[in-house]
């Protein structure tokens, strides 16, 4: 059922959050600190038994220089249209609770001819897809189960400061691959992609790495926190509500922290062409919060609306649309 704003109001809705005055400085200092750690990317061939896709186990330094794992999947050399030319790249981020999964999963993008880097998600990867990267930075203060309130009393300690930084470093790792591997990836033709939490990471990267070539964000999470926690009863946003139901005196502090990680506050800095999707019966990422991110996104953009779907949105139809979009945007 529909439980959000009417369609005419959704189309114009731009969110209820305000960006902190020091937002740009906060992220510049965070990324400058991360970049003090050398970008030493380890790429190890992974025995797969596959003929059409090559697999590699990747480790790169994320927030605090901590090792972040990823899978690199490439079309087999003999199947590339131009075996001597650089490949366009897709960096993919994972939904809430999942990790990078098994190496043999998610062969779609490499099969389509892209270099595909799928980043593991620190501290997650036990909810529905395997992960292998701990959240080594720790946290501060009490929290309810899950990641949404880990370190939420201070932007410096909040979980998503570390994860957004990992995502930026994943793009930088993808760009450095020609320096550490015989695999050639075109550093000017790299897109970021994800659904839900993964879409939020893609949107954050689009703002923090303004030279990415394209963005795909399906039903993005972490958008318009003030509205999300008040209009949905679903997890993961419910984690924040559960926390504040006990920590009653921390509402202002928590909302001040979340503003630094709200994609609605970040995407006015984005310039890359973007493809969004929204599902009007989605209670996990309420449609109004997705529209808030879409309407404030500053670059060229397209939106697919699924009137009768929930958080699955367009499923395979979204993937097929993303393929056509990225083939166009990343054409050599």
TrEMBL record:
Residues 3-328 form the Acetyl xylan esterase domain. Residues 125-146 are annotated as: Disordered. It holds the Pfam family AXE1. Gene3D superfamilies: alpha/beta hydrolase. SUPFAM superfamilies: alpha/beta-Hydrolases. It comes from the Bacteria. InterPro entries: AB_hydrolase_fold, AXE1_dom, CE7. This is Acetylxylan esterase. It comes from Arthrobacter zhaoxinii.
């Amino acid at each position: 059922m529909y439980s959000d704003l009417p369609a005419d109001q959704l189309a114009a809705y731009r969110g209820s959050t305000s960006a902190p005055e020091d937002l740009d400085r906060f992220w510049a200092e965070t990324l400058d600190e991360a970049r003090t750690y050398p970008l030493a990317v380890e790429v190890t061939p992974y025995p797969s038994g596959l003929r059409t896709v090559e697999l590699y186990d990747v480790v790169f330094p994320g927030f605090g220089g901590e090792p972040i794992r990823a899978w690199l999947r490439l079309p087999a050399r003999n199947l590339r249209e131009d075996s001597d030319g650089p490949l366009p790249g897709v960096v993919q981020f994972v939904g809430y609770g999942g990790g990078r999964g098994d190496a043999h999963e998610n062969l779609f993008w490499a099969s389509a001819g892209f270099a595909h880097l799928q980043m593991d998600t620190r501290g997650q990867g036990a909810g529905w897809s395997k992960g292998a990267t701990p959240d080594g930075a720790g946290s501060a203060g009490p929290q309810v189960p899950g990641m949404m309130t880990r370190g939420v009393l201070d932007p410096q300690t909040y979980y998503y400061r570390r994860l957004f930084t990992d995502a930026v470093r994943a793009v930088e790792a993808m760009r450095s691959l020609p320096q550490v591997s015989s695999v050639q990836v075109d550093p000017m033709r790299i897109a970021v992609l994800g659904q839900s939490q993964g879409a939020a990471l893609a949107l954050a990267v689009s703002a923090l790495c303004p030279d990415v070539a394209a963005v795909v964000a399906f039903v993005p999470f972490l958008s318009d926190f003030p509205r999300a926690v008040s209009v949905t009863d679903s997890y993961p946003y419910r984690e924040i509500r559960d926390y504040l139901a006990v920590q009653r005196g921390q509402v202002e502090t928590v909302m001040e922290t979340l503003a630094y990680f709200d994609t609605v506050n970040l995407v006015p800095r984005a310039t890359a062409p973007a493809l969004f999707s929204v599902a009007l019966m989605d209670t996990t990422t309420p449609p109004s919060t997705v529209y808030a991110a879409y309407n404030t996104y500053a670059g060229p953009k397209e939106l697919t609306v699924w009137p009768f779907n929930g958080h699955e949105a367009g499923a395979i139809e979204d993937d097929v649309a993303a393929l056509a979009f990225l083939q166009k945007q990343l054409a050599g």
